[in-house]
Amino acid sequence: MTRSFGFTLSATDGRARTGRIDTPRGEIRTPAFMPVGTAATVKAMMPENVRATGADILLGNTYHLMLRPGSDRVARLGGLHKFMNWERPILTDSGGFQVMSLAGLRKLTEEGVKFKSHIDGSVHNLTPERSMEIQAELGSDIVMCFDECPALPADEKRVAESMRLSMRWAQRSRDAFGDRPGHALFGIMQGGLSPELREESAEALRGIGFDGYAIGGLAVGEGQEAMFDVLDYAPGLLPEDQPRYLMGVGKPDDLVGGVKRGVDMFDCVLPSRSGRTGQAFTRRGVVNIKNARHQDDPRPLDESCDCPCCRNYSRAYLHHVMRAKEIISSMLMTWHNLHYYQVLMSEMREAISAGRFDTWEAGFHAERAQGDIEPL
Ligand SMILES: [Zn+2]
């Protein structure tokens, strides 16, 4: 564990970038998509299968893990990597976002957030210092600053106050993180849809200094057009020689638009969660496998996909197991979706390296515009 954390850009094409993040637990090829392993598991998938889809790194949720099974317990059991049998890099969020979205009865102060667990109603305190402690106990490779994020739309005064509080918490997170060789701490830019607030936030974060920078406060109800408007300038406010991470995004075309605008890392529950409810992402758009049109269809979800689901199972079978609520339906659909997302990232990395991102992007949109294959 002597190798340190580092980021190397290998090619750019327009604002799109490709490169790699080095960590003591292995390399992360960028642009990267991180599957979400909320409760120390990517639901319905064995860790080795997640790796087989091409994932270099997983995301774990501080809020969920602090409540159950508890970060102190995970630490006693050897840390999150050992606990969940994933030896490659893990990024953990700070818990802030999920306290706001999931916890009952919460009280926000300068110090932090006091909240009631959505599981058993027990009362907890989360502060920048406590979040750093929990993420260290989990053994996270990339630690996120504790921040606060208002849902959009919100008035500018509320967004400004929240952003400034998050910047004070960013400094406290930096101080509490300390010196941990091989582990990285990322700052999180806030500021809603305001260029002035985004600039102020970026300046505050650059002043503190981090190993990477996230663009937070998007994908919270503003819509794709407003998100892309922010991404037209926000990545450019952050240091060029460090990774940029767009949190909680997104749909396949969100990822393409994010990469085009200079984002290096993404995470989202969409491919796994949608898989469990019967939605598959393919080159030709979204397929709802529960639809009756698939019940006699012997063809795979996607002829061009080489994942185990598409190689071995028909739409008719997937339709049947999904309707029958068989566990294998979640396994197969999740596998296909995570595979599709990783192929998408891999194609974008290659296109950037080859200097043909625009051509690749045109092909991506053209194929989706065809819609799903014709019914038999
Ligand atoms: Zn597939």
From TrEMBL:
Keywords: Glycosyltransferase, Metal-binding, Queuosine biosynthesis, Transferase, tRNA processing, Zinc. Its cofactor is Zn(2+). Its EC number is 2.4.2.29. The active site is at residues 93, 267. Gene3D superfamilies: Queuine tRNA-ribosyltransferase-like (3.20.20.105). PANTHER family: QUEUINE TRNA-RIBOSYLTRANSFERASE (PTHR46499). This is Queuine tRNA-ribosyltransferase.
